[in-house]
Write a structure and sequence with these properties.
The protein has five helices and no strands. The chain is mostly helical and 188 residues long. Helix 3 (87-109) packs parallel to helix 5 (147-187). The model has no long low-confidence stretch (mean pLDDT 78).
Length: 188
C-alpha cells in the first residue's frame, strides 16, 4: 500500500519537479568537459611517467658515453708504433710508409687484366704483413720497446717493400714478354 501511495504521489507531481530547463547545448558542453577532464588525467599520468624516467635516461646516456670514451682512450693511447719509440724511429716509419705508398701507386698504374692476378696475390700478402705489424705494435706496447720487436717491425716494412718491388719486376717481365710476342707476330 505504501508503494502504491508513492507511485501515485510521483505521478501526481511528475511535471511539478521540472522547474528548470537546461540551456541549449548543455548536454554537449557537459560531454566536452568530461572528455577534457579525462584527457587531462591521461596527460598527467603520461607526464608523471616521463618525469620519472627522464633522470634515469640521462644518467644511462652519460654512463654509456663515459664507457665509450674510456675504451677509445685506452685502445688509442696504449698501442705504440715505431714513431712512439724515438724521433729516429718516427723518421724510419715515415720513410717506409712513403716508399710503400709510392710503390703501391706504381703498381696501381700498371694494373691490366694480365697483371690483375699477380696484384691481387700481392695485396693479400700485404694484408697479411699489415696484420702481423698490428700484432707487433701490441707486442711493442707490452714489451716496453724491446729491440727485437723494433727490428721485427722494421723487417716487416722491408718485407712489404720487397713484395711490391718483386711485383713491379714481374709486371715489367709480363710487359716485355707481351711486347716480344707482338713483335714476333708482326714479323711473321
Amino acid at each position: 500500500m505504501k508503494e502504491d501511495n508513492m507511485h501515485q504521489l510521483f505521478e501526481k507531481f511528475q511535471h511539478d519537479f521540472d522547474v528548470e530547463v537546461p540551456s541549449h547545448g548543455h548536454k554537449n558542453r557537459f560531454l566536452d568537459k568530461l572528455k577534457e577532464q579525462n584527457q587531462m588525467q591521461g596527460i598527467a599520468v603520461t607526464k608523471t611517467s616521463k618525469r620519472l624516467w627522464k633522470p634515469f635516461l640521462g644518467m644511462a646516456a652519460s654512463i654509456v658515453l663515459l664507457v665509450v670514451l674510456a675504451i677509445n682512450f685506452n685502445t688509442e693511447s696504449d698501442i705504440q708504433d715505431l714513431a712512439s719509440v724515438s724521433p729516429e724511429m718516427a723518421n724510419t716509419q715515415n720513410f717506409f710508409t712513403s716508399v710503400i705508398a709510392e710503390e703501391l701507386e706504381k703498381i696501381n698504374n700498371e694494373r691490366t687484366p694480365e697483371t690483375e692476378a699477380l696484384i691481387k696475390d700481392a695485396m693479400l700478402q700485404m694484408k697479411t704483413l699489415e696484420t702481423q705489424y698490428n700484432q707487433l705494435k701490441l707486442d711493442l706496447t707490452e714489451s716496453g720497446n724491446d729491440k727485437r720487436v723494433i727490428h721485427a717491425m722494421i723487417d716487416n716494412f722491408g718485407n712489404r717493400i720487397n713484395i711490391l718491388k718483386s711485383v713491379l719486376e714481374n709486371i715489367e717481365g709480363i710487359k716485355t714478354f707481351k711486347l716480344n710476342n707482338n713483335e714476333t707476330i708482326t714479323t711473321l
